[in-house]
Design goal:
With about 270 residues, this protein is an alpha/beta fold. It has two domains: about 5-125 and about 235-265, NAD(P)-binding Rossmann-like Domain (Rossmann fold, 3-Layer(aba) Sandwich); about 125-230, 2-Layer Sandwich (Dihydrodipicolinate Reductase, domain 2). It is about 40% helix and about 25% strand. The protein has helices at about 10-25, 45-50, 60-65, 75-90, 105-110, 125-140, 165-175, 180-185, 235-250, 260-265; strands spanning about 5, 25-30, 55-60, 70-75, 95, 115-120, 145-155, 185, 200-205, 215-220, 225-230, 255. Strand 2 (about 25-30), helix 2 (about 45-50) and strand 3 form a beta-alpha-beta unit. It binds NADPH dihydro-nicotinamide-adenine-dinucleotide phosphate and the ligand O=C(O)C1=N[C@H](C(=O)O)C[C@H](O)C1. It comes from Geobacter pickeringii. Its EC number is 1.17.1.8. Belongs to the DapB family.
Length: about 270
């Protein structure tokens, strides 16, 4: 039975991960929150709504990492990089679901993960990871004749844009088409912005209410259009996916992995 600690334990994802870890038969060994958070000291299971676990929410990163086999972290890139550093020092595995990493932060994460096994994935659902696989084939098959536009919708509390999933979708399509995502992604059209270029990948963001997460990639040709969509109805497949990743990553060779590795989709 693996010992799982959860960082961001009082957050939208953290609470569901605690429930999923308990349901999967893992031992929840620790729960972390930001220093000074009002729920520090409260029972993590009671906060998550799955009954008392006898695990108080803590703000002591070192002690919580010390006591676990794997840390599951859904917070922000800066917090995740700090967690990765501490896990590397203590030789513990980590699963990171935070999104909004800059390319430089991702490179730093890969560097730190040379010491320990780490899963870093912007989306832990099976459905989205199957979409990543399909998108590569569709983009390669259609080639340059179809314009690609990506639209994502999320709740009004989301801090990063575009979503990590939309960025990964853009990267998958760009790579399949032999383009550099960082050069062809177009995040903004306004005023007399000129005709669309063939290479660009439009990235559109919608924020509102309680939308869990929706992504559509449009391949738009002359007289026809393909739409590949994923809609998340709850957060539970993300949380179950993160626990599955935690069970998979403990004991793996050091290095950075993603959900495609966990799900055997490569
Ligand atoms: N990979 C995936 O499948 C998914 C990824 N995500 C990503 O996960 C991240 C979290 O999302 P969500 O749960 O909605 O966000 P929330 O804001 O609800 O949760 C984040 C939690 O982390 C806490 N936190 C902040 N700083 C620290 C710290 N130093 N140590 C410990 N905890 C800290 C926050 O506290 P406070 O609020 O006080 O700052 C908050 O409770 C986002 O980046 C999101 O995009 C979300 C869903 C699925
Ligand atoms: O913040 C969220 O809620 C989500 N974030 C992830 C992302 O940025 O891709 C995954 C999911 O869509 C929910």
């Amino acid at each position: 039975m693996i010992k799982v600690a959860v960082c961001g334990a009082a957050g939208r994802m953290g609470q569901r991960i605690i429930v999923a870890a308990k349901e999967a038969g893992c031992t929840v060994s620790g729960a972390l929150e930001r220093p000074g958070h009002e729920l520090v000291g409260q029972d993590a299971g009671l906060i998550a709504g799955c009954g008392a676990l006898g695990v108080a929410i803590s703000d002591d990163l070192n002690a919580v990492v010390e006591g676990c086999d794997v840390l599951i972290d859904f917070t922000t890139p800066k917090v995740s990089l700090k967690n990765l550093e501490v896990c590397a020092l203590k030789k513990k595995a980590i699963v990171i679901g935070s999104t909004g990493f800059t390319p430089e932060e991702r490179a730093l994460a890969a560097e730190l993960a040379k010491e320990i096994p780490a899963v870093l994935a912007p989306n832990m659902s099976v459905g989205v990871n199957v979409c990543f696989k399909i998108l590569k084939d569709v983009a390669k098959t259609l080639g340059d004749d179809f314009d690609v536009e990506i639209v994502e919708l999320h709740h009004n509390k989301k801090k990063d844009a575009p979503s990590g999933t939309a960025v990964r979708m853009g990267e998958v399509v760009a790579e399949a088409l032999g383009r550099d995502y960082n050069k062809v992604a177009n995040f903004h059209r306004e005023g007399i912005c000129g005709e669309r270029t063939r290479e660009e990948i439009g990235m559109q963001t919608v924020r509102g209410g309680d939308i869990v997460g929706e992504h559509t990639v449009y391949f738009i040709g002359m007289g026809e259009r393909i739409e590949i969509s994923h809609r998340a109805m709850t957060r539970d497949m993300f949380s179950r996916g993160s626990v599955r990743a935690a069970q998979w990553v403990v004991g793996k060779q050091p290095g950075i992995y993603d959900m495609q590795d966990v799900l055997g989709l490569k």
